[in-house]
Specification:
The complex is a heterodimer of chains A (about 300) and B (about 290). Helix content of chain A is about 75%, strand content about 0%. With about 300 residues, chain A is mainly alpha-helical. Classes of the chains: A mainly alpha (about 300), B mainly alpha (about 290).
Chain lengths: ~300, ~290
């Protein structure tokens, strides 16, 4: 197990390097620059600014310089938000984005799995049709549609919850964003659970457990649930990536001060270090969380480790 | 040999067609999609209003069947019926083309990798794995923002460039299986060059699963396109896409909820129908796979 883990961690490094290199090229080869403003800067000022940030040097030199900085954990200064480093900006927004994402995944798992189990146990009956239809809807609706709709219904018409804003993390303000973010994940988890539980329930060992006179709860708990939940565990990695990009929209819809806006604003302003920082942090987080999901999977299913 | 292949293909396609028409849900979905597409294409002839023409007499009017504007107007007095249809048209156009682009790249990449096998296959699929791990929506956002914002060509290219990975995987798996079949071996033995084998013998046998996956790609592309437009990075005003209509609708929902509800309803309807059609197609083609 340990050597498997170490091998997987070592495998992350080249991938991360590719992410950094590709995004560095994409970001830097684009036309325009951070100091293109409506009022053109005097050439001398511009040259000084470019020298200050090292933008006058060849791209390869800047690339090596950037990599060196990353090794020290330094993402560089923000070019447009003066007096802030990229690390400071991301550190300001990340706790909120992370809370949002984690809460959404937790909620999705806690509602999706029971819903999937219920649908599988009452297969082809009313409850099953309700759950599968809801899941199909939840999967088809993108969050930039459900978000405003939830805000319209629960915020404006029913007045149960605030429409937007955040008031320093008051839980009331996070309910709708988390709900919106969790909906498609919960729908997919429910679908996965239903399908795989149906398959497991028709297996011979489940039938023999039933033949020994075990009741449904015991069969589920002792025999069926663990293998049935394997696909859900392996979906958790992609789910994390989905939730992280999804929070971009959620933060825009509900006016939350997370990290999402930095990516779009940074790209529009040509704030190179900020955009790069966002990609590197999110890329590394995705890889890391995917790895954790894989390790949990390997821990549950010993066959994987030796593959 | 040629004729045989043609008969087999006809058999497969007509079988799948029969199964599809037997599936009422999928067929209804197809009808709705075709209807929407027709409406969208005919949009300029259906209403006296253009997508960017302003009606100063009716600003921000709610929808009504007897009103001058069926689906109401926005704050600038632009007709929401026409704008929504234009939005559907643009969204369908972009998503179908982007799916096409990603399909071509994916099929070629996957088929070459699967057919070549060995080390070439290993490297080509390693590339796909690494690209998979990129936060691809981030890359699309950055591509569309940094290169010309609002340019449809860039949008298409960015969407197509990231969409081909899954197609490549599916195609490669199928090609690997096909590679060992006798008719490919026979073609090799006869000295048919590799590109001809690829085009004449491998690609036609892949079309079923690829077509299924492509129908499921179209709604994904619609979502991506609308998502980018929603963030203000895709289609720009005064042009209408479902995404930027929903964006404006979400900003105005307190005073004019129909501005959100109309385009959202169209988007949701389109997505659900496309998903039903994709599922129906999968069921229609699947019996052959199993």
């Amino acid at each position: 197990m340990l050597s498997y883990t170490l091998r997987r961690i070592a495998g992350l490094i080249p991938t991360l390097l590719v992410i950094i290199t590709v995004s560095f090229c994409v970001v830097r080869l684009a036309p325009g620059g951070p100091f293109d403003q409506e009022q053109a800067l005097p050439p001398a000022v511009r040259a000084n600014l470019e020298r200050l940030y090292g933008l006058d040097q060849p791209l390869t030199v800047q690339y090596v310089h950037y990599l060196r900085g990353l090794l020290r954990g330094d993402f560089g200064p923000s070019l447009r938000q003066r007096d802030f480093t990229v690390s400071e900006l991301i550190a300001q927004g990340l706790p909120l984005s992370a809370t949002l994402g984690l809460a959404a995944i937790l909620l999705a798992v806690l509602t999706g799995i029971p819903a999937g189990i219920a649908a599988a146990l009452w297969r082809n009956r009313g409850a099953d049709y309700c759950i599968t239809t809801l899941a199909a809807l939840g999967l088809a609706l993108p969050s930039f549609v459900t978000g405003p709709l939830f805000a319209l219904v629960f915020g404006l018409y029913l007045r149960w919850l605030p429409v937007a804003g955040w008031q320093h993390g008051a839980p009331r303000y996070l309910v709708l964003p988390v709900l919106t973010l969790a909906l498609p994940v919960a729908a997919y988890v429910a679908r996965l659970t239903r399908a795989s539980l149906l398959e497991v329930l028709s297996a011979h060992y489940v039938r023999s457990a039933r033949a020994r006179g075990l009741g449904t709860p015991r069969v589920l708990w002792r025999h069926a649930l663990r293998p049935a939940l394997m696909p859900v565990v392996s979906y958790l990695g992609p789910a994390v990536a989905f939730v992280m990009t999804g929070s971009l929209v959620i933060e825009t819809v509900f006016g939350l001060p997370g990290t999402g806006r930095y990516l779009v604003e940074g790209a529009i302003d040509r704030d190179y270090p900020l955009v790069m920082g966002m990609i590197v942090v999110y890329g590394a987080l995705t890889l890391f969380l995917n790895l954790i999901a894989d390790l949990i999977y390997g821990w549950l299913d010993p066959g994987v480790r030796h593959a | 040999m040629h004729e045989q292949a043609a008969t087999a293909a006809r058999g497969l396609w007509s079988d799948a067609g029969r199964r599809l028409t037997g599936n009422r849900l999928a067929f209804a979905a197809l009808a709705v999609i075709v209807g929407m597409a027709l409406f969208a294409v005919l949009a300029p002839h259906l209403s006296p209003w253009g997508y960017d023409s302003l009606d100063w007499e009716h600003l921000a009017r709610p929808p009504g069947l007897t009103a001058a504007h069926w689906f109401g107007t926005d704050r600038l007095g632009r007709d929401l019926f026409v704008r929504t249809l234009y939005g559907v048209r643009l969204s369908l156009f972009i998503s179908v083309l982007a799916s096409g682009v990603s399909l071509v790249i994916g099929v070629v990449w996957g088929a070459v990798a699967g057919l070549a096998g060995g080390r070439t296959d290993g490297w080509m699929m390693r590339c796909v794995d690494v690209l998979y791990s990129l936060p691809y929506l981030f890359i699309v956002i950055i591509l569309t923002t940094l290169w010309q914002r609002g340019s449809i060509a860039v949008l298409l290219l960015a969407l197509g460039a990231v969409g081909w990975l899954t197609t490549a995987r599916i195609v490669r798996g199928q090609a690997l299986a096909l590679r060992r079949r006798e008719f490919i071996e026979a073609a090799r033995a006869l000295g048919v060059p590799a590109p001809a084998i690829l085009w004449r013998h491998v690609v036609p046998n892949l079309l079923g699963p690829v077509l299924v996956y492509a129908t499921l790609t179209v709604p994904q592309m619609i979502v991506f396109e609308s998502f980018l437009s929603f963030l203000g990075l895709g289609v720009q005003e005064p042009h209408a896409s479902l995404g930027n209509l929903i964006l404006v609708g979400a900003q105005e929902m307190e005073s004019a909820p129909w501005m959100l509800l109309v385009p959202a309803a169209f988007l949701v309807g389109l997505l659900i129908c496309l998903n039903f059609l994709g599922d129906g197609l999968r069921d229609a083609f699947d019996p052959r796979e199993r």
